[in-house]
Amino acid sequence: MDDPKLLIYAALGLAALATARKALYDQKLAAIPVAGSSGFLASYRDALKFILHAPELIQQGYDQYPDGIFRVARLWHWDYIVCGPKLVNDVGGAPEDVLSFSGGVEELTMGRALAENPYHQHTIRTSLTRNLHRCFPDVRDEIVCAFDEVLQLQGSEWKALPVLPTTMAVVARVSNRLFVGLPLCRNKAYLQNNIQYTIDVIRSAGRITLWPGFLRPIVGPFISNKEKSNATALKILGPILEERLAKEKELGPDWPGKPNDFISWLLELAEGEERTAPALALRILSTNMAAIHTSSMAFTHALFDLTVHPEHLLPMREEVERVVKEEGWSKAALNNMVKVDSFLRESQRLNGNGPMTMTRKVVAKDGFRFSNGVVLPYGSFVSVASRPTHYDPSNYENAAVFDGFRFARERAEQKLQEDPTKDIFKRHMVSTGTDHLPFGTGKHACPGRFFAATELKAMLAHLVLNYDVKAEVEGVRPADNTFGPVLMPNSTAQVRIRKRQ
């Protein structure tokens, strides 16, 4: 078939066959209720609606089946959405060889190579988390330098800044202070490549879902610049990685002067082909994507919330001043900034990265059986209705209202009661549970949440201590951007900021 038109017609024909096969396949699951319409044509209308109105569809299903399972139509398959603590625990507790976390995200974010051997996640969960106390002075130093150099404020004048790009620039520097250290964490070309890769992955992840699965490997290179970013990362990181590998080979794994950074921690676990510069560069780039995306989104939302709820600024400033005066700047001191922690947790509760989370793929050949008896077959995709859970009044009083110190009050009340049956740690920012899902819950709860929380709390504490902020338009919070299952803070909205007066 040399004629391009014939290739297009053939692809469309195969897509139609795949669609028909999928429609027949899903007849086996007809008993699972639908949020929207279940008819062949009507479900495609809902699949198109999902692209711009996913939160409304997921909320509709949750309202109807708050402790059950429902499905929503996507262009090429059904997504199965679970609600209620019991079923959420079923998903969170399932092993990787039954419900696969990697399988749920590989084609959208990680790529197959990383998904098949995600050892870097273990590095994040163990070495990175263990070293947060030791490395906190570096984190703090980079926050101070990054805020000064990125914001570039002069005198007492207010300056309008685009929040998301500014936040990404700061987060990239702070994260890479631990990942690759000085001076590379301040290299503009290196930082810009990581930021652009993050933007590209998130953007292309939304676009790739518009194509059937069998065509995604073909169209992927045309809608993503990931290979270009990979090449740039290798060009910059390659000499450093080769030097590290050479020193390990010559002097052993604990050679004198070995940096205490993410590269060293990766090398502790990397084996075989993973111990090469290209493979290591890809791991670092992927870890950057996860860190920059999650922390930048969370801090941008928090800053928007602070500007439309300015009554929270002075109490947080007073708390930070008191704690720093008593303890200085340390990881342990952050643990006593209860209002800062609560503010960030509340912002995360109301502003997740989408209406659903904890996406998994059923990889067990005989399917996955929920505790209520429902069985999803091999190849199905299942997620948790996170946003409706966070807005559920049975989980939170005045659930739709932003209350920045909600969790600080709960912790104080529980401390006064001294009730050993109540776990006050359940209201910490890093704590997960079936009613609080920004980091997921269960076996695959976000491995980097301890680093993210440390970074975000240190950044917010520095902000409220040293700067004044206000909304671009008083009392108006910029609307989020929605595309399919992704919710993002407005990418062009600004806030006004000045040095503390």
UniProtKB/TrEMBL annotation:
Signal peptide: none annotated. Pfam families: p450. GO terms for molecular function: heme binding; iron ion binding; monooxygenase activity; oxidoreductase activity, acting on paired donors, with incorporation or reduction of molecular oxygen. Heme binds at residue 446. Its cofactor is heme. InterPro entries: Cyt_P450, Cyt_P450_CS, Cyt_P450_E_grp-IV, Cyt_P450_sf. Keywords: Heme, Iron, Metal-binding, Monooxygenase, Oxidoreductase. Belongs to the cytochrome P450 family. This is Cytochrome P450.
